[in-house]
């Protein structure tokens, strides 16, 4: 093969590889890696991972009848939901995972916007937001330990206006998000 | 005088070609029929993983594949028929290929098998084939696995591979579709309401 052609092909391959590596290594700022959560041998397990393309695809369904919801979806980059029913086999491991996620968020610039704990064994809800200035939210993480029965983890990544969260919560039935006063968070800024 | 030695050789070489041309349509028809009654490789691989994790006592109820050629022929044929519902035409327009398998087990309903192993094994195997799981549900004996192509995650989906099992029946589907046409059809059927509630 012509040496010039060989060199050009090698350079092109290197450029492509470095571009691919850099794009793979830079998740969006609001993205949180919950790690690999596997189902136990019994109990309910739900895992949903929606990418940007799929969310835009979903917005096409609703653009006429639910334009607000469609607009929110168009600005989302990623949605991950995990619902895991707790059993003796996985309770300690899953709850430990949730506590680890919470600690990591607290130490990495996320704002805790909701913290609710119903005694003695009720819901333990903490919601975190990654703010970009005062006007936008780059990421939301909802963590719920529902007594000893169930754990819910939700990560929503995108360019989200605080006032759109109510639409998101209502449309996708995310109860803990419905009660949050995002106007207060917006004005306090972080 | 000696006749040229090469005069008879061209006749011998032609017959295999003629035979091949005669047999080719039958071979192609056989390949077409064989591919139409089997799952495509991705769906078959997913089926194998689910069956291995839930017990192998499954028997086939329905299994077929239709590709772009057959669907194109169906679209052309339907265009000449007047009483076909518009939704059927839209489905034909939206779906580019489909591979469907329905299986049943004759014994008692399975409790779900080793779900942790199933999810891990299925994810590994599908990742090697270029698929990423977007939905995984396991509840008692019910299992749902939905995969989309890994490449182009930021683009609209154009293929899907899924398996749904309720312990007694297993359905495996791999389909290619045109996203905009499918979205329009689903939006009309769902009356523009988003079907998802988390």
Layout of strands and helices, then pairs:
The complex is a heterodimer of chains A (190) and B (198).
Chain A: H1 3-25, E1 45-50, H2 52-62, H3 67-74, E2 76-85, H4 91-106, E3 111-117, E4 123-132, E5 136-146, E6 150-160, H5 162-171, H6 175-178, H7 182-188
Helix pairs in contact in A: 2-3, 3-5, 5-7
Chain B: H1 9-36, H2 41-54, E1 58-66, H3 68-79, H4 86-94, E2 95-105, H5 115-128, E3 131-139, E4 142-149, E5 159-165, E6 169-177, H6 179-189
Antiparallel strand pairs in B: 1-2, 2-6, 3-4, 4-5, 5-6
Helix pairs in contact in B: 2-5, 4-6
Describe this structure in words.
The complex is a heterodimer of chains A (190) and B (198). With 190 residues, chain A is of the alpha+beta class. In chain A, 42% of the residues lie in helices and 29% in strands. Chain A has helices spanning 3-25, 52-62, 67-74, 91-106, 162-171, 175-178, 182-188; strands at residues 45-50, 76-85, 111-117, 123-132, 136-146, 150-160. In chain A, a hairpin with a 3-residue loop joins β4 (123-132) and β5 (136-146). In chain A, α2 packs antiparallel against α3 and α5 packs antiparallel against α7 (182-188). Chain A is globular. The termini of chain A are far apart. Chain B has one domain. Chain B is built from 6 helices and 6 strands; from the N terminus they run ααβααβαββββα. In chain B, strands 1-2-6-5-4-3 form a 6-stranded antiparallel sheet, with helices on both faces. In chain B, β3 and β4 (142-149) form a beta hairpin. The relative contact order of chain B is 0.15. Mean pLDDT of chain B is 81; it is low at 192-198. The A-B interface holds A 38-42, 44-54, 56-58, 60-66, 69, 81, 154, 171-174 and B 111-112, 114-116, 119-120, 132-140, 148, 152-157, 179-180, 183-184, 186-187, 190-198.
């Amino acid at each position: 093969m012509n040496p010039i052609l060989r060199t050009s092909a090698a350079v092109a391959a290197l450029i492509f590889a470095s571009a691919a590596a850099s794009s793979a290594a830079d998740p969006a700022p609001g993205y949180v890696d919950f790690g690999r959560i596997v189902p136990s041998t019994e109990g309910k397990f739900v895992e949903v991972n929606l990418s940007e393309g799929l969310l835009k695809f979903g917005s096409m369904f609703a653009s006429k009848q639910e334009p607000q919801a469609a607009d929110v979806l168009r600005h989302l980059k990623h949605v991950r939901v995990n619902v895991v029913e707790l059993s003796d086999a996985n309770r300690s491991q899953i709850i430990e995972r949730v506590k680890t996620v919470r600690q990591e968020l607290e130490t990495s610039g996320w704002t805790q916007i909701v913290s609710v704990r119903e005694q003695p064994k009720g819901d333990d809800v903490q919601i975190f937001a990654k703010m970009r200035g005062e006007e936008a939210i780059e990421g939301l993480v909802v963590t719920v330990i529902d007594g000893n029965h169930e754990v819910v983890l939700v990560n929503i990544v995108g360019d989200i206006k605080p006032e759109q969260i109510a639409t998101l919560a209502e449309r996708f039935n995310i109860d803990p998000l419905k009660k949050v006063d995002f106007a207060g968070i917006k004005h306090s800024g972080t | 005088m000696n006749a040229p030695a090469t005069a008879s050789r061209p006749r011998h070489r032609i017959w295999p070609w003629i035979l091949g041309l005669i047999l080719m349509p039958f071979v192609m028809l056989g390949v077409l029929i064989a591919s139409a009654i089997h799952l495509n490789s991705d769906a078959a691989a997913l089926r194998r993983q689910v069956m291995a994790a839930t017990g192998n006592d499954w028997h086939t109820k329905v299994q077929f594949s239709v590709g772009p050629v057959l669907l194109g022929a169906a679209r052309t044929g339907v265009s000449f028929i007047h009483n076909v519902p518009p939704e059927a035409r839209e489905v034909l327009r939206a779906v580019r290929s489909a591979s469907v398998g329905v299986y049943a087990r004759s014994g008692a309903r399975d409790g779900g098998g080793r779900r942790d192993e199933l999810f891990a094994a299925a994810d590994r195997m599908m990742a090697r084939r270029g698929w990423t799981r977007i939905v995984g549900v396991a509840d008692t004996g019910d299992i749902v696995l939905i995969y989309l192509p890994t490449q182009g995650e930021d683009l609209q989906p154009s293929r899907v591979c899924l398996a749904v099992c309720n312990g007694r029946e297993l359905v495996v589907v791999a389909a290619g579709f045109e996203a905009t046409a499918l979205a329009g059809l689903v939006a009309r059927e769902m009356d523009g309401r988003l079907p998802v509630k988390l």
